[in-house]
Amino acid sequence: MDDAGGEGALLTATVRTVAQTGSTNADLAELARGGAGEGLWLRAERQTAGKGRQGRAWVSPAGNLYASTLVRLRPSDPSPATLALVAAVALEETVAVFGVHATLKWPNDLLVDGAKLSGILLERVEDAVIIGFGVNLAEAPDGLDRAATSLTAHGVTPDPQLFAETLAESFERWLARWRGEGLATVRDRWIARAHPLGTALTARLADGSSLDGLFDGLDAGGALMLRLADGSVRVIHAADVFLL
Fold this sequence. Notes:
Helix content is 23%, strand content 31%. By secondary structure, it is of the alpha+beta class.
């Protein structure tokens, strides 16, 4: 749907649901190329070709959340990459609505008691960014390179449609703040909901090397700051990050 109300208007998000598709991100990418407007959400009860970051497959059994939305970029917007922070704070807020305390881990994971609850995938399509959310509501996958959990394991199993609608409302609010107040507001919220400063991390870089250090917050552009053993701070723009 189009932002007919102008720069400061909030959209009224609508979540469309299908029984099954290959990937909600792929479907929205096609709609974006066809001119679909901002505020559209697509949820699938099942995915047959779900994907995560760096081309990983995303296991998609029924009962979990698989949903994507579309943001049309404007010249005055902050960096498109920082929509990952917008998505993360909106998702953390939504999980809290359903009574579970989650912790943010850079770049956009939610953890509950140290185990991964969700994933967020951003993909650029022309002047749009497609943002996909996968959340383990009913069950968590096995065989990952890290511990995973679900909301059911913590005593609550939200209806996926209700969860998606709640998430859409939260994302809409944080998107408006990202545009109206700038990245700093979103960044501050992200840091407030993250694991504490000084948390030991390993960053696995794209070239296969790894860096161990302590979480030192985010820089002004939303990149990870990792304090190394020699006291220097390394700014990391892309990596897989693990808690030690």
